[in-house]
Design a protein that fits this description.
Elements (H helix, E strand, L loop, with lengths): L13 E4 L5 H8 L4 E5 L11 E5 L15 E7 L7 H6 L1 E12 L20 H6 L3 E11 L5 E10 L1
Parallel strand pairs: 1-2, 1-4, 2-3, 4-5
Antiparallel strand pairs: 5-7, 6-7
The structure holds S-adenosylmethionine (SAM).
Length: 159
């Protein structure tokens, strides 16, 4: 997130999906962005004027919680629910930036998540965006911090 945050246009709105405690929400707010932070558990998200908090279960079959809304960036970290990809892509304006990082196959060697439903397949993020995004960076690798894990990361701009 830190490495590719500079791709997001100054003043652009940012969607933080499955925002958790809001570590990325706070980081992007600190860069002057207005953030919409979505999670089913919003208790730990910061209450501040530049952060819109949306409480929503993204997996229970409810409609997408932000119909018709468009953002200058969408960020997702450590969360995967494959049926959401079309809605995430639609939620980006043309030229909008996607920064996505989560666990991939191979992570089961190091602990959780180990369920294949929560692990990206080899090349999956790249394949999902091809033809729809211009890819700025893509990685699939072992990381050691904050713990050993296999992750995929992508930074891409919507065409
Ligand atoms: C591992 S945390 C990642 C949080 C944050 N993105 C980060 O990197 O710090 C996963 C988040 O997904 C949220 N989540 C899991 N299932 C969800 C669902 N069905 N609907 C909405 N949020 C969900 C959890 O509440 C949790 O905050």
């Amino acid at each position: 997130m830190v490495q590719w945050a500079g791709l997001v246009a100054p003043g652009a709105t940012v969607l933080d999906l499955a925002a958790g405690g809001g570590r990325h929400t706070v980081f992007f707010a600190g860069r002057g962005h207005r953030i919409t932070a979505v999670d089913r558990d919003t208790a730990k998200l910061p209450t501040r004027d530049d952060v819109e908090i949306v409480a929503a279960d993204l997996e229970d079959g409810s409609p997408w919680p932000l119909p018709g809304r468009r953002f200058g960036a969408a960020i997702v970290a450590n969360y995967l629910h494959r049926p959401l990809f079309p809605a995430i892509f639609d939620a980006l304006e043309p030229g909008g930036v996607l920064i996505y990082e989560t666990f991939m196959m191979g992570n089961e060697r190091f602990g959780k998540p180990s369920n294949p439903d929560f692990l990206l397949k080899d090349g999956e993020l790249l394949e999902l965006v091809l033809g729809r995004f211009s890819v700025v960076a893509y990685e699939a690798r072992l990381i050691s911090e904050p713990k050993m894990a296999m992750v995929q990361r992508i930074a891409a701009r919507k065409l």
